[in-house]
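Example 3.2
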Amino acid sequence: MNAPVKIETTLKDWETDQEVRWCPGCGDYAILKAVQRTLPQLGSDPANTVFISGIGCSSRFPYYIESYGFHTIHGRAPAVATGVKLANPDLDVWLVTGDGDGLSIGGNHMMHVLRRNVNMQIMLFNNEIYGLTKGQYSPTSREGTRSPTSPIGSVDHPANPCAFALGSGARFVGRGIDVSKNLPDVLKAAHAHQGAAFVEIFQNCIVYNKDVFDAFAAPKGAEGQQLWLADGEPMLFDKGTKGLAFDADKLHFTVVDVVAKEDGTPDWQSAGVRVHDVKNRVMAHLLAELPFGTFPMPLGVLYDDPAATYESAVIAEREASVSGKEPNLAKLLSGGQTWTVDGSAQDPV
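Structure, written as tokens:
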């Protein structure tokens, strides 16, 4: 596998001539622009980049990125993306899916691409609803969600995408918000990770689940409910006036108030605020499952601990299996037990 050659591009180089067709106000527009702004900063080459999607509103993504792309079938994008990566490991593969596509019919495929640790970026747009098929409740819909398939309220307990990813063996798990200025930073961290990098993106479905994330994701007024995590930095939120402390005996977080020092900086040490460690898998699980309301919403990179990638293991196995062997098809066909059929023999009458 060769290291990718970085080139200079602009946002315009990643825009296609296709009309972008999502509902007016859809969060997908913001995610698209975030990705198109991020790719030039990564030095990505459109000729070496592939966007692969399944079925759903999010899965229109390949039409709007000026690169190679494949709009596949419902839930099977991880399998197709795995094949692409094995066929050409030098390609920069991005997988785009939604909470319905990736966690319902595609949950099995998603689990395997994560546990295998195939080197790609996986963006799961979570709007807690089936948008393309007209608003049915999805695997991530909250209990009580009213929809055409749950007219008096869903009784299902929702899936937690980040907890699912960690449970499937993902080595990178992150979270972002469609309209957040910090989303490109999460995408850059995912791209830098060697292996399957899973990023859940909270996305506002303006038609069927409008403003469901406003308590922590509204462009204005919700900043105090966002905990943006950074490796080696204290878990502070609400402009540094609050933080998360950790009780090691009971294995749970608590919210603590943080006072300012004389110089105006937060005195987080005295408050016992926990420092984030992206390699701590147990802590990542606890953060992924913090109940919002009692706690702020953890965002950014929850977990980042690289391991050997699937394609590197496949390539190594392939090379070892042919090492010292002669590529001779005729010899292969004539080896082992052989016999000759005498063409002169007559069939019995």
